[in-house]
Amino acid sequence: MLIFSILALISIFGALMVVTRKNPLTSAIYLILVMCCIAGMFVTLGALFIAALQVIVYAGAIMVLVIFVIMLLNLRKDEFGYDKKLLQKYLGFAFAGLILIQAVFITTWAMKDYGGIPEEDIAEITEMEGIESLDKYLSAESVAETLFKKFAYPFEVTSVLLLTAIIGALVVSKKRLLDEDEEGEI
Amino acid sequence: MAPLEYYIVLSAVLFAIGVWGVLRSRNAIVIFMSIELMLNAVNLSIVAFSSNIKVVISRFIEAVPPQRIPDILQTSMASGQVFVLLVMTVAAAEAAVGLAIIISIFRAKNSVNVDDVNIMKW
Fold first, then answer.
1. Which residues in chain B have their CB less than 8 angstroms from residue A18's CB?
2. Which chain A residues contact residue B15 at CB under 8 A?
3. CB-based contacts of A32, cutoff 8 Å, min separation 6
4. Residues B21, A19: C-beta atoms closer than 8 Å
5. Is residue A125 within 8 Å of residue B54, measured between CB atoms?
6. Cα-Cα-Cα-Cα dihedral sign, residues A149, A151, A157, A161
């Protein structure tokens, strides 16, 4: 509970910093902080494999790519900053607040009958299975078994998706696709 | 472990901050990072639900034959992590394509401000 509170405060602070900082590089560094905090929360939930993946894939690979692009683009100073139009600015804030209120309301409403984990049911299951706790089902072994047995087709589809993304990224970022002389115009 | 509601409310807060960031900023890279923040918030809620799925399962435990219980438990507790794995794959693909689009926009317009890229506006 203490760990959760600390991680939650740090991640909310980091998320606010991501949104409000003017320099995109500062935002990126704070986003890495938020992602590491979320990895810590996966640890508190018992999902250790996903926590490791979160650090490696999100905080590692994706954010390195983002920072690489920020460095590569070498933005001018006037690129930074936010919308100057007041209406849009406050409407954005109001809309985000509305979504927050909706989400919290729906959550608390949906869980108003939720009276915590019935311990005797869990005791019954663990006794029947001959295991100490249900955390066994959250392990990487269990995830792998589920992924490759039950979710084999979605797993294969992601490989096609990644191939498509590679080709798409190449095509989009290529300077001239067809004609050598024609200047590409967006 | 903190109660499930705490995780869900935190996830909602992070998601709302992400929405605010998308609506507020004019820089395409910051918008992209806000989208990543929203994806992370949703991942958190998926894992929180799947780790607490034993509550739901235990209510229906009488309805299933006993030999199928381990299988059902394993599938339902691990499938949240499998979903998050797939979401991470999609996010990686999205990062590759999205940043390629941002680079190509920068090449054409010499700017990543989304107000400069309004040619699809009628």
1. 17, 21, 30, 33-34, 37
2. 99-100, 103
3. A59, A63
4. yes
5. yes
6. negative
Residue pair B75/A97 in contact (Cβ under 8 Å)? The answer is no
Residue type, B84: V
Rounded to 10 degrees, the C-alpha dihedral B10/B16/B17/B20 comes to 180
Min Cα separation B70/chain A (Å)? 7
What are the tens digits of pLDDT across the range A107-142? Answer: 777 776 655 555 666 666 666 666 666 677 788 888
Query: Which ipTM value was assigned to this complex?
Result: 0.88
Measured between CA atoms, the residue of chain B closest to residue A170 is B100
- CA-based nearest distance A158→chain B, Å: 7
Whether the CB of A121 is below 8 Å from some CB of chain B: the reply is yes
pTM > 0.95:
no
Element (H, E) at B118: none
Distance CA B43, CA A36 (A): 13
What are the tens digits of pLDDT across the range B70-111? 777 777 788 889 999 999 999 999 999 999 999 888 888 888
